[in-house]
Target: DHH family phosphoesterase
Amino acid sequence: MEELDDGFLERAHDCAGFLRDADDLLLISHIDADGLTSAGVASTALDRAGVEHETRFSKQLDDEDLDGIEEAGHDAVLFTDFGSGILDEVLTRNFTPVVADHHQPATDAEAEYHLNPLLFDIDGSSELSGAGTAYVLGRALEGEDGNNRDLAALAVVGAVGDMQNQGGGLSGANKVVVREGVEAGVLEAKQDLLLFGRQTRALPKLLEYSTDVFIPGVSKNSAGAKELLEEAGVEAKEDGNWRRWVDLSEDERRLLTNALFSKCVENGVDSSEIEELVGETYTLLEEKPGTELRDASEFSTLLNSTARYDRADVGFSVCKGDRDEALAEARELLRGHRRNLRNGVEYVGDNGVTEMDNVQYFDAGDEIQDTIVGIIAGMSYSKSCVNRGKPVIAFADVEEDGEKKVSSRATKSLVRRGLNLAEVMSECSSAVGGDGGGHDIAAGATIPEGSVKEFVDEVDAVVEEQIS
Ligand SMILES: [Mn+2]
Model:
């Protein structure tokens, strides 16, 4: 059974010991699903331990943030889901930092209150998220045996939001978080269909929108999706309303899953790809069935749609338990987000992509917000103008400062052939004086405006090397 490293736990206890007595504490966290859940976990644990604190968010922690914190005169600052990357700078400032992060530390510098799985041989990109790290801290804040185990549910939402469930489920130290959540009765982990929207989507939409694994005749095919339900012998409506996955009995779920598998086999979909239709799913048992919050993946999407529109406050309140105003506002933001995504995908369909030998790209200028252009790049695989055999590179203007935001997405089968977009983005952006990184299947970069052409040429060459 997977266990957490003793040194890591000890470090968490040291951090917790300091925080318990901290005066004038600021909690600052990253604006994304993992950062919001990190803050939710940490702030709840601090509340329970009676530690007063203020909470703030930032897109990317920089000197300006640190200046602001210093000016505000906080004695102690807890950084979650970022901080390790500029630890050197943080350590020079006039406050005591506690850093709970899972990103690559920029320095070998020792810091007393630096809690990062990477320092203890736990892979921070796949085995523990920022929220998981905050959870380990939160558990330590409760004392020796640690309670706060109910916060594991939120930590799992963060891990899923950080795409650490690639390959059929969470792994490594994340497994410990899952296990403790299950033991605390707040989480259910089980093998199920991996399609997005099991809690909230009408069955035909659930099937129609399944594009991670492209199911011929069903994905992006509304009539085909309804037909499949009939073929499977699953009643699609109840009292005139569409049923959702969550409304189905175990038997019905099996029937439908089998029908999907058969459909794939009939159409010659690769068996390794078919297997990816099923994996470990995480249900938050204390949330109402049929709501976004009940499913880790839908919950993280809801949070992302607050974060991407600069409404971290709304997502954070939901993480802290607000199920009234904040939840209603988050849902409104999600609706707006979906609208923007639809418009963005339509834009790609209307304007098409430029195909190169090994990649394809589009530059949305200011037509698509830089915060969602990556999602749209991924979704654009459903458009007939986009080639599923090549990665998609998307560009958008960054409002403030003459920079271009780059987002890249690929299919799982490209990754199996050797594609690693994190490497591509990091290597090619530094070649033009930018900065980038991410995951093998989804990565991003920021490059100077005017370097788009040079950048894509570079990308095309590097991708060729990787998949040849
Ligand atoms: Mn993170």
User: Anything to note?
Assistant: The chain has 18 helices and 15 strands. Residues 325-351 form the longest helix (27 residues). Residues 34, 81, 102, 129-130, 162 surround manganese (II) ion (CB under 6 Å).
